Each structure stands twice: as structure tokens, then as C-alpha cells.
Amino acid sequence: MFQSRVASPFNFTNPGPGKDRKIIKTEPPLTSVLELLQRAAATSAGITFYNAHDSGKSNPKRISYQELLDQSRRDAAWLQNSVLDLQRETVILLHFDTHEENIRWFWATTAAGYVPCIVPKFAVSSDRRIAQAEHILRLLNSPVILTNDRMACAFNGVETPSLYRVDDLIPISTFSSPSLAPVVQNQRDDDLGALMLTSGSTGFSKAVCLRQPQMLAAVAGKAYHCRATSEDVFLSWISLDHVVNLVEMHLHAMFLGAEQIQVATERVLTDPRLFLDLIDRHRVSLSFAPNFFLTLLRERVSHPDFEREPPVWDLSCLRCVFSGGEPTVRQTAVDLMRSLQHHGARPFICAGYGLTESCAGIVWDIVDHTLESLDGASGEFLACGLPIPGVQMRVVHETNGMKPAAVGEEGMLELRGTVMFDRYYRDPAATRAAFTADGWFITGDNAYIDEHGRLYITGRTKDTLLINGLTIFAVEVEHSLEQARIPGLTPSYTLVFAHRPPGAFTESYCVVYLASYDPDDDETRAQTTDAIERIASLVVHVKPAAVLPIPRHYFEKTSLGKLSRAHFRRLFENGTLETERAFHMAHLRAYRQVHRQPPRSPTEQTILDLVCTHLSTDPNDVSVTTNLFQLGLSSLDFYTITQDLHRIFHAHLTLPDLLSDPTISGLAHQISISTGITTRTAEYDPVIPLQPHGSTVPLWLVHPASGNVLIFTALARAFHDRPIYAFRARGTRPGEPLFTSMNEMADLYTTALLRTQPQGPYAIAGYSLGSSVAFEIAKRLESSGAEVRFLGALDGPPDISPLVGHLTWSEALVMIGHFYELISEKRSLELMPELRVKEAEMALNVILGEADQRRVQVLGLDKRELTQVTEVTAGFCRAAGGYVPRGKIKGRYGCGIIWDSGRS
């Protein structure tokens, strides 16, 4: 057992690592979380917000801690006076999509004396979203829900009698209010400070009870351990529903009276260099970055474009970037820090370990390493270091949990101390299972402790996956595969377990299954493998490291019908399954090679290598005739590939060019046209095959007003045995005439549909304005005697023309600006009347001038591309101007909302 040498983390003097750092004055011990904000309000420090919805040229928003305290008291008064039936035990569920709103209402709830619970975004799939929401509402015992108009749709289809939208309330501001609510200490009989949900953004969560003394012990212990002072500047881009941001960054900075920068997650992930830009701009000294993000940074700063035009950064201010959530790969850390040395960066990556149950990091390697010492050390991963004050850790044998492991011996990690939680909310069974008989928390992680007391994490024992810093239930991946009814799988004999390939920058996972096909049926083997990879990646967002059919005798179920993940992981990693794996891969490769069309030109070879590198796929397994959507390309992948092809071949390609034949050979053909080698002869064909294979009824998808079909790519990946087709609007390629009426569009699409699928039954769905076209296609099919088995309207009923039929060209441009996330929804509503009658050139300059420039770069947009998209949208709107839906269909009709459908 190893424990910290400091008994009390509450009341101390912290001299810091150097004499020039300020000393924190010893003050009376804190007794509540609210006192953190009250004490910080006496300083001049505060929070700077960079929101995702801000335009690229807007200034970040800063508020002081005093302003936040004043606002929290105003909002607390609103809660107490406006929310009905508040009880002492009521939990306030916070569901927002910005750091600013989550922080505002966290403190409002705390000031009102209630317990906040910040929840992450729910699943995009309606069934999973509803199941998650209903589970959380049951778990929290019918909480009050605070949200905004953008996020309220997450609760569609769920009974929510106590849901409040707060959009119209006064935002955080600098003016004083004469009627501030009195500060109320916790209304509850217990000492709860917050509830945090486990499992990240997926799965059926447990709610961790963070007690106020625990939270205060944690921030004090963190500050002492990393020698932080009020001079430090904290930067966080992790979402507030994660304990790393809430406690490690937000409350930690507040405890010190230090400045903090809160940046929208998506802004940093889409442009990792922004992380370093902000460190330089705000003189950041402390931040957090899991290993997968360190890998992204390393790749970005080693990119040829970076080397050609290196930015002018001064990173000498950066003391420590905490890296946890998953083991930190030593070589990744060393390579990144070495590449940033000439920007003044000292060794700054501090690996660590923590959990939601421990208020985030409780072990950090706060040592003044040199790059040479790190590079020369043994082991694939960095040491996690020593524990902070307020925690004890021990490693015990896996087979005998009461027997301590020797120094350097691997075993199961267990924790206890003042920074540890003591229960899950309203779940006594889970609480009992989480602790040993003598009161130690069972982390579910394998580890060892060296002779210096430093912790090393070696793997997982729990039924979870930890990938790119996100915790995912393995059982949810299994359920998705079972529900997909993949023909080659034997029901109830599919297992998912964690696996970290040697040298990988994050944990991965494997899928083993009992095959229902003959061992020599290589076609079904390949189809089953492809389907498993596609369905699993929808849940985990990355493909499995291995998909392996294994014989029945390995599937030894318990009396309750369970399979042991740890058992299968051992079999896989110790080589027991190598014979089965070699047999599977040999047959899979042989089948793919027979059916593979290899590159026929240097251009095809270059494109193949580019696509496969982007997807981490073996080029030898990909045919130049393979539909790229089947490989798992997202809409943003297509935009990125377009820019890469332009850089390599100096060819200007539009999305219609890519979509006309989304294969390697198709892209090569479009490049030859763009560079003048080949003359374009192909006539307009509206059919885009998103998922061309399958034996069930095909699904046809009609685009929204913009003509963009990429919004359907994530949906297409969810189907393994159903062909998915989308229609491309005429006019998306320069020189093509726009449609003049809805009837013309419906006639042409119906003809193209029948040419591709001559026989019914038919299934059609339209998105937004496309639902009107889908309705007209269905009517034409039924009038010809065909069966329309399903007609769907996504995010809009068939009669949507009154909303868009009278839009001007400039208003259509504003709508596209919002749809493409160049400007915020709020700004689009402001610009609609301002630009309604403005000339196109002026309107384009306004939108591109206010647009988030990083988003413009990601999408590869310029004035010509944006003009083309707007022409299609405005033309669609004109065509819909006189449209009135009439008639009805016999088939099944469904109308719903795609939540967050534009992201993939």
C-alpha cells in the first residue's frame, strides 16, 4: 500500500517550485463548494469562453468570478421562484452544449442549495437516445431539467413534466441587480455537491455522488501536488459533463483564484493547433490532454504544411499538460515535446491516473524530467507518478484480493481516502459491488507500483472500453451487433473485449463471434467481417483491431449464460487463438484479392494510399472499385480528402465530382477531367450509392434544400444488409441547370429510381424540404401500381414550402451559413432581415467575413463553392414557392426529427 505523506489538504501554504511564484496565504478551511466561488470572487480573476457557435472573428467572452457569483444568485432566485414543486431532494439535470451555460447553471443550482448533474449529449439513434434519457430520468428520480432550444430535442419522445428552456433569461452580464437571491447552503440532509454520470456519452450510466468535502479535498490536494498558485492560467477543452473539466480544471482554478480558459471541444478537435495558439495567446501554464489528442497534435506539428510555415509561438509559459483517461504512450509524448522545443516548450506532459469516482486525477507524475531521461526510460507508457494528498492506493492479486502484490508485480488497483466517493446515487447494489469488504474501491484497472511508489497502469479488468479518453460499455457494442441480425453471426455468441495493440496510441477492442457459416464460405466470411466492422464503428467511432470467428468450444458460458471478457482477452493476447486468426485472415485476404481490382495508374495508387492512410486501412484489402462510403468515410472525411487531392494534383474537385462515382477509380477519373486529360462526357445522374449492397428493401433518401447528400453518410453506415441510395440535386455541379419546379424534380428522380430499382416494394425518406419531394415520388410510384412500403419525413413534414418558398438569394445564403455551421443560429436570425434584399456579393462578403475561418478551412469552402451551394438552395426554394401537397399514399408514413443529424 502507498499513501501520501500529507495528512490534511485543506489548510496549507504552497510555495511552488520557485521563489518567484506567489505564496498562497493560509485561509480558514472551506466548508462548502459554494465558498470556492465566494472566495474566488474576491480576486480579479475569471473565465474566458470560446464557444463553438461564435463566429471566427468574434472576440471571446470573459466574466470575472464576481460576475459569475452575482449571476448565480440571480439565477438561483429564478429557480426558487419559477420552478414548480422543488423539493429538498430534487436533482437539477443540466443539458447544455456550451461551457458557459453549463458553468452558469451549475453555480445557480449550487447557490440555490440543490444538487446539479451535468449530462453529456445522448446518442443520435432515436431508440438509444430515448432509452438513455429514460434511464437517467429514472435514476435521478424525475429531476428538473434545464436546457436550451438547441438541446431540448434530446428529450423528444420522453415524458418530461419538469423541463425548462432557459434561452430567454438574461445572460451573464456585468450589470448589478438589486434583488440577488440569498446564498443558501445545501437544501439536502446529506453533503452532496454534484452528481456525475459514468460511461461517457454511451451506455446506461451510474451516477457518482461527489460529496462536498471530497471535492474540496480533491482540489486542495491537486493544487498542493502540482505546486499551483494564483499565477497559473488553466485551459480546458473537455466537456463539463466530464469530471476532468469540472473538478480538475474549473474548480481547481477557482480554488486558487486563477484565470481559466474554457474552449468548446469541437473547436480544438477540428483544429488541434488552436490548442497551442491559445496557450501562447493566454500564457497558459496548466491544461489537460488525453493521449489520443497528444497524437493528433504530434501529427499536426509534423505535417509538411506546418514545417513550411511554422507558427510563431512562445510556449515557455507551459508548465504541465496533465495526460490521463488512458495510458500515455512514451514515444508520442517525447516526439511531441521534442518538436515543440524550438517554440520554448520545456518537458510539459505529466501522465496521471484518475476516475470519476476520485474527482479526476489523483496520481500525477510531477517530476522535472528531461527529454533524454524520458526517451531512455523503459516501458511503452509513461509512469503515472505519486498520489496527491488524500488518497491511498494498493495493488492486490487478481485471484486473491486480500493478498498484496509485491513491488513491481502486476495486480488489481484499489483506492481509498478523503478524495474518493462513497456511493452511487440510488444504486446500493452497484455501491456494494464497487468496494471490498475492508472499504477499498475496486477500480477495475490492472497496475503495479514500483520501488519509488510510482503507479503504472497496465490494462483493464472491467467490462468497459477506454478509447480516445471515452469510456464505452462493451455490452452496448455487443447489443448493437446482435440487433443488426448479421447473417453470419450466431445469436448470443458475440463478445467484445478491450485490447491495446503494441505501439498503439490508444486502447482498441476486438470482436470474437461464433460463425453460422461454413468455414469454406469465404464470401459470407468477408461480408460478416465488413458488417461487424461497420456496425461496431457506429458505436465506438473506430473500427475494431480484430474481428475473429472462433470455434464453439471456446465459448464456455457460466450457469447464467455469461462469457468472460478477461478470459477471451488472455486467449487472444497470449497467442492461443493465433491458429484461428491466421486461418481467418488467410481466407479473408484470399477472397478479397480475388475480388480486388488493383490500381491501374499512379493516380489511382496515390488516391488509394491517401484514403487508406486516412482510415488506417490496409491498401491491399481495398479495391479501386470499392464504394468509399462502405469503408466508413464521414462527411468531414470527404471534405478533407478533397483538399488533399487538390494539394497533390492541383485539381479543383467539387463534392458532386466525388459523389458521382465514390470509388478510387471514380476519383481518378474526375482528376483527369479537372486537369484536362479527359473530357467530361457523363450526363447528369442523380443517383448516389451510399451503400450499394444488401438483400432487403433499398432505402432512397432525398436531400434538403442545399442538395447536400453527405448528411446521410452516418445513417447509411448503420445498415449492413440494405442498399442505401441518395439523390444529388441538379445544379450542384457548375453548368448544370437548376430545377424549375417540384414536379420536374420528382419526375426525374422517379425515373432514376425506377432505372436503378425496377421492382418494388419501395422505401423513401426526405430530409427537410426533401420530404416534399419524397412525398411526390411516393405518389408517382403508387399511381403506377407499385407498393410504397415506407415514406419518411426527417426534420420536417411534406408541406415545408411556406417556410422557404419566399426566401431571397441572400436569405438562402444565410440559411446555408447556419446549416454549414459557419455562423451561429442566433447570428443567422439576426442576419436574415439585414441581408434580405442585399446583393449577392455583399451578402457573401458578410457571411465569409463573419464565418468561423477554421470551419471554412475544414470544409474547403471559398466564394465560388458557397455561391454554387446557395444557387442550388435558392433554386430549390423558388421551385417550392408554389408547391402545395395534395393527395395521400397507402404506405406507412413516419415523421421525426434527426437530432444533430448534420454531424458525422
The overall pLDDT, averaged over residues, is 84
Note poorly predicted spans.
4-25, 173-178, 897-904
**Count of separate DSSP helical elements:** 30
Q: Outline, from the CA principal axes?
A: globular
Major pleated sheet: 9 strands, mixed
Strand order, sheet with most strands: 3-2-11-10-12-13-14-15-16
Protein name: Nonribosomal peptide synthetase TdiA
Organism: Penicillium digitatum
GO molecular function: very long-chain fatty acid-CoA ligase activity
Biased composition (Polar residues): 1-14
Architecture blueprint of SSEs:
Layout: E1 2-3, H1 34-40, E2 46-50, E3 61-64, H2 65-82, E4 91-95, H3 99-112, E5 115-118, H4 126-139, E6 144-147, E7 163-165, E8 192-197, E9 207-211, H5 212-225, E10 233-236, H6 243-256, E11 259-263, H7 265-270, H8 273-282, E12 286-288, H9 291-301, H10 304-308, E13 320-323, H11 330-339, E14 349-355, E15 360-364, H12 371-376, E16 386-387, E17 392-396, E18 411-416, H13 428-434, E19 441-449, E20 455-460, E21 464-467, E22 470-473, H14 474-483, E23 489-499, E24 508-515, H15 522-540, E25 546-549, H16 565-573, H17 578-594, H18 602-615, H19 635-649, H20 655-660, H21 664-674, E26 687-691, E27 699-702, H22 713-717, E28 724-727, H23 742-756, E29 762-767, H24 770-783, E30 788-794, H25 801-804, H26 809-819, H27 825-835, H28 840-850, H29 853-859, H30 863-880, E31 892-896
Parallel strand pairs: 2-11, 4-5, 4-6, 5-8, 6-7, 10-11, 10-12, 12-13, 13-14, 24-25, 27-28, 27-29, 29-30, 30-31
Antiparallel strand pairs: 1-17, 2-3, 8-9, 14-15, 15-16, 17-18, 18-19, 19-20, 21-22, 23-24, 26-28
Helix pairs in contact: 1-6, 2-3, 5-6, 9-11, 14-15, 15-17, 18-19, 18-21, 23-24, 26-27, 26-28, 26-30
InterPro entries: AB_hydrolase_fold, ACP-like_sf, AMP-bd_C_sf, AMP-binding_CS, AMP-dep_synth/lig_dom, ANL_N_sf, PP-bd_ACP, TesA-like
Organism: Penicillium digitatum (Green mold)
Pfam families: AMP-binding (PF00501), PP-binding (PF00550), Thioesterase (PF00975)
